[in-house]
Amino acid sequence: MSAYAGVFALTMGIPVWAIVFFALIIGIGIPFVIADRASGLFFNFSYSGMVGDICLLTVVLVGIAVIQRGASLPAWLANGTTQAIWLVLCIVVGILLVTISTPWPTATWPDRYHNCVVVPLFLFFTPLAVLATLYNGNRVEVVVSLLLIATWGGLVVYDFRDGRINQPGRLERLFDIKLVNGRFEKI
Questions:
Q1: Which among 5, 19, 61, 126 could disulfide-bond with 80, CB atoms 3.0 to 4.6 Å apart, if both were Cys?
Q2: C-beta separation of 137 from 16 below 8 A
Q3: Taking the model in full, what pTM does it have?
Q4: What is the overall mean pLDDT for the chain?
Q5: How many CA atoms lie within 13 A of 71 on its CB side?
Q6: What's the confidence (pLDDT) of residue 103?
Q7: What SS3 state is found at 184?
Q8: CB 4 within 8 A of CB 73
């Protein structure tokens, strides 16, 4: 077992309310402003993008609660170098998502932000938090974390099957509005 380094050392000194506040700004506040500026309409049809993000944030908060109790972690997990390598890989995933899989119309700026910023943050923090919980959490913390991850996974599958991932396309299909010159207009 090892002393804390990297993100674990950082979370030891930050109150949970501050973590929640910054997570809400990063995950909800900034996309709202981007959507308002880019298209004049904030929308998020994906359950995985709203409810799923709340599930993952809760998993991270459970892990932080476990870490803040001072539980010891294996050296490989608490190591700052390991976490730095993991962070770089998560950033690469975000860059790939935003350049390869996200459509480029202006209306998708919030999606691009989510894929480039929020997804890598969750990809970085969630596995570390889950591992901390698996190593030192109580039974309730472990079960809740695993159920929340399963819920998020189910929501992702549902969103893809229901066409909720292509949000501008869904707006057009459901409400007959389309992005024209950077603003939504009735078709």
A1: 5
A2: no
A3: 0.85
A4: 86
A5: 19
A6: 61
A7: strand
A8: yes
Whether the CB-CB separation of 177 and 171 falls below 8 Å is answered with: yes
Cβ-contact 132, 126 below 8 angstroms:
no
Q: Give CA–CA dist 78/2, Å, rounded.
A: 6
Distances (CA, A) of 181 to 35, 104, 170, 171, 178: 14, 14, 18, 16, 10
Would you state the structure tokens that stand for residue 66, as one six-digit string?
A: 């476990």
Q: What is the DSSP string of 5-27?
A: -HHHHHHHTS-HHHHHHHHHIII
pLDDT in tens, 114-159: 888 999 999 999 999 999 999 999 999 999 999 999 999 999 999 9
Distance CA 107, CA 96 (A): 19
Cβ–Cβ contacts within 10 Å for residue 6, how many? 18
Domain ranges in the chain? Answer: 6-186
pLDDT tens digits, one per residue of 29-39: 898 898 888 77
Residue 77: in which H helix or E strand, if any? helix 75-78
Q: Which helix (H) or strand (E) holds 62?
A: helix 47-68
* 183 membership: H or E segment, kind and range: strand 183-186
